[in-house]
């Protein structure tokens, strides 16, 4: 044991009670390129260039929207097709995700804040589990993270 952790003449302590509190926190915003790169680095230690390459490949396969965006919002039109396909998308995630409600939220659906390109989201093309499994691991991780963040908006 290191000297800094040794207490001389230590006294017994008494725990009088434990409190559990449920706290609500806002779901994360949808991804722009930089926020997705940051999240992938934190979670999977992927570099920005590795993440961009993975997103670009998913875009070329028509599985994710345009990658070079600085916007974290989508329009009502994108929300509608994502909501319609949500059960199919959720069939692809490795761990179940609970849905509370499916309604647009101004935190991520705001057509006025969408300029050239909206947030990075899944496209109308819903891949099969086999297609996802055939992708390189980093692409699978990117797709899963984008899908999970969108599903937490509900």
Short descriptors:
single chain; 154 residues; Topoisomerase I, domain 4
Q: How does this structure look, described?
A:
The chain is an all-alpha fold and 154 residues long. The chain has 5 helices and no strands. This is DNA topoisomerase. One of its GO terms (molecular function) is DNA binding. One of its GO terms (biological process) is DNA topological change. Its EC number is 5.99.1.2.
Summarize the structure.
This protein has 154 residues and is mostly helical. Helix content is 40%, strand content 0%.
List the helices and strands and how they pair.
Layout: H1 33-44, H2 48-60, H3 76-90, H4 129-134, H5 137-151
Helix pairs in contact: 1-2, 2-5
Number of helices: 5
Number of domains: 1
Output the radius of gyration: 21 Å
Question: Biggest sheet: strands, sense, closure?
Answer: none
Helix content: 25-40%
Instruction: Label the structural class.
Output: mainly alpha
Which architecture does the CATH hierarchy give at level 2?
Answer: Orthogonal Bundle
What is the straight-line distance between the termini? Answer: 49 Å
**How much of the residues is beta strand, in percent?**
under 5%
- What is the CATH fold-level name? Topoisomerase I, domain 4
User: How many strands?
Assistant: 0
CATH class equals Mainly Alpha
What is the CATH homology-level superfamily?
Topoisomerase I, domain 4
Order of helices and strands: HHHHH
What spatial form do the alpha-carbon principal axes imply? Answer: globular
- Average pLDDT across residues? 87
Weakly predicted, low-confidence segments = none
């Amino acid at each position: 044991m290191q000297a800094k952790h040794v207490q001389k003449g230590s006294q017994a302590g008494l725990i009088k009670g434990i409190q559990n509190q449920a706290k609500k926190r806002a779901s994360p915003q949808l991804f722009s390129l930089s926020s997705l790169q940051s999240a992938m680095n934190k979670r999977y230690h992927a570099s920005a260039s590795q993440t961009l390459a993975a997103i670009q490949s998913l875009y070329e396969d028509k599985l994710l929207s345009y990658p070079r965006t600085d916007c974290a919002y989508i329009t009502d039109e994108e929300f509608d097709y994502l909501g319609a396909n949500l059960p199919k998308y959720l069939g692809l995630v490795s761990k179940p995700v609970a849905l509370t409600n499916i309604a647009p939220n101004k935190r991520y659906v705001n057509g006025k804040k969408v300029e050239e390109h909206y947030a990075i989201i899944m496209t109308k093309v819903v891949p099969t589990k086999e297609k996802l499994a055939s992708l390189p691991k980093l692409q699978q991780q990117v797709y899963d993270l984008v899908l999970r963040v969108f599903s937490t908006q509900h």
